[in-house]
Amino acid sequence: MSESNVSGAAAPPVLTGSAREIPKATLVQLRLPVPPTGQALIKSAYVRQLRLRPDEAHAVRDHLRRADQAATEVSDELIDLLAQYEQQSQPSLLPPPSAFVDVPVPALKAFGDALVEVRRQRAVRPAADRAEATAGAMPAAAEGLAQQDVRSALVAVRGLAANTRATPLGMLNLERLEMVPAGLERGELIATIPLAPLEETAVSHKEWSVRSKEFTSIVTDSLETVSETGVTDNTELSQSTTSQAQHSNQFNVTATVTGGIPVINGSAQSGFSSQDAKSQSATDSTKHATSLTRKASSRAKQEHKITISTTTVTGSEETSTRVLKNPSQVSAMRVDYFSLMRKWRVRLYRHALRLTYDLVIPEPGAGLRRMHKELADLKGQLGPFQFSLPHSEITDAILPGETQPHHRVLAERYGAVVPDPPTAPSAPQFSVGAPQQEEGWHIFTPDPLEVPEGYRIKKLNLWFATTSKKDVLFSFKVLGTPLYIQDQTQGEYGPMELTSGAYGGFMLYATGKVYISFEMINNRNTTIRVASEIEPIPTQPDPDPTRPAHSDRVRDKWRSDVWNLLRDAAQTQYYERQQDIATKAAALQEQIEQVDTLTLRREEGEEIMKGVLRFLLGPDFAFMPPAVVDAFAKAGVDLEHGIGFDENGLGLDATAWATVREHEDVVRFINQAIEWENVVTFLYSYVWDVPQSWNFIRRLRHPDAGRQAFLRSGSARVVLTVRKGWEEDWVRFAEGGFKSAPTTPDSQYLTIAREIAAYDDRNYPGIPPANPGRSAVRLEEAVYATSRDVLGKTAGPVSIKVDSSKDFLVGAQVVIDSADRTDPADGRAVQESQIVTAVPDATRITVGRLDRAHDGSVTPFAVLQPGTRGALIAEWNEYTPSSGTDIEIGSDLGSGV
């Protein structure tokens, strides 16, 4: 650099050893004319969406012939192909998407337009005719079906036009942002001390030093097996730039970007032209990089960063007093203090170009959400214990479909031991001999009748026998009843039903201890017998007195006891299950959250690959085709655990081996043709998922912000980066319906793939400067020369006179001329790449041949030997604050003094 600082001294050297680099990329979307071939999946999906009815294909052909269009657009071969998609066909017998590789889009559109017209004509037919045409359907249903067919055809035709208008191809410019310390510059004015002539003043100078050593650990995890760790000073611009870029991506209101390229910006392009597309993307990339570093510079100035760091702070303070004196007797003096700022040289290099294939996939995180659904299901099972078994279900009856009493079925269900219903107890009774009282009166009360708990007396019968002395009559009375036998000599009496109405319902429904007292006069040899009948005390009597009660206290108590036992057993089972569920939930929660960053990114990359392949290769693709699965099964592979081919032999016959190898060839090609480590993913909001899942998705949480964004994405735009050297093979594969079907040699997509591959080989020469006011295009670590020769095409070696041949190497590839120069003969760029065969002297180089003519008589053309860093497309300076200060006596502050 030749710039000078404010004081006029030479600029300090650029500290290239302290350079910091940030990888970035610029994505350029291409809009191209509709290609005549290819786009097999789009065409196949369009035909499926038409939902052709039986014989509709031939009806459309007849309509086109009447309109005199069949000969020009829709061929009989296409009609026969479309007829296979009529709904009478079996889905498994439909042609593959590759059948539409060579079918022109205008022919499919013409067929769709004619189908719309045919269906419209059918929709206006009388209802009776429509009913007949739909095999007996009701007229109203037939009319609705016809209108739906018209709408389906219209939507399909419009969708074909929209989907074939845009191309999934694009180009990704791989770039590098390099920042190098380039010295110090005077910054803002901090303080000014004015001194009058001969004035002397004491300046108290307090100097303190706080030494803070802060180290931030930066870990970069790739999708390979490398983890790079570095320690950087937290004030460097490179880290601020990286933080700013990540901050911008994280809070992008449209999408979250993930993938192998840390910083990426996009450039939309309406057409493909080597020079125009590159110039526009270079300008966009420079604006993005400039904005990025300026934001980072502002971020560094504000010193607003969030880091996880280790900080050690030590400090000291020193105070001194300085005496400043103005020695002049006539002039005033001023002492100015300035801040010092660190200067950074920022360069943007472009070092490679990749062909990209763009598509949008739904629910990229669907597979990873499954664990969260399992966790939500487990947590949903946690809660308070509830026992909903009604008492009425407890019965000793054998219900239909059961082989034992139902209460035992319940006991086995809940793991409890329950008693059988109690049997009816024996009715209480007593037979006693009363004490004799031959002359006189007394009352006798025998031991009471013990009525069992839950029962009551239903009937009470009395028998007694007694005698008296000669010429003395006896009397016998049951107290509490009208039963009174008197003035008898002897006799046997009974049975007498004391509970009957005749005796006032004595002791009817009595419970517990039932005492019966007898009044006797002049008795001897008296025996008394009382027998009872008991019944359960009803709690819900039947309206019909002749029928047993619906429920009684005994069975209710049994039901209550059984219910309590069942509930206790069920509660024990429930808490055991709750503990097991809680353990499983905790283990699953740990499995979800306690995962390192590298594994998270690996899993997300695998899910992206899975989603891309599913929606890229179409409905006929299977990760493991049934034929391969059958071959694995025949070989004795453990399909559940994925264990096989670990014995001495493979166990595959020749046919199975060929099937497996064919599948492996597809797998190998897909993994090699795409740089899966550099796939860029734009995550879109959950609102692009089905509305039924919104409530679940927006509640997903994960401690890793990247994983949370991935889980909550409703769809994702995936930019596949085609590996260098695989451009043509990938385009043939993609545009051939992903079945390796051939495409025509002049396919527009194939031409673009070749052009991008060739342009990448030239390492971006001839790109105009992104900042026209700055220096011209140059390459870092490259050899650059110009020539004023006028050269024509040659088949053999040719010598080119250049301004300097220094550092040109024999055998190296050089790029001659610029891409924006065209040959008037064919309109193509004259830029070409050749091999240096000799370096004769200091002003000449020799190349093997020249394929184009070059004229440097008016404007010298470039001869460039590419370097390793790539094309320098922009350069600018940025500043960050430092802790230093600068002092000057009477500095010029721009006041004109």
TrEMBL record:
Residues 227-247, 268-305 are annotated as: Disordered. Residues 268-295 have a biased composition (Polar residues). It comes from the Bacteria. This is Uncharacterized protein. It comes from Streptomyces rameus.
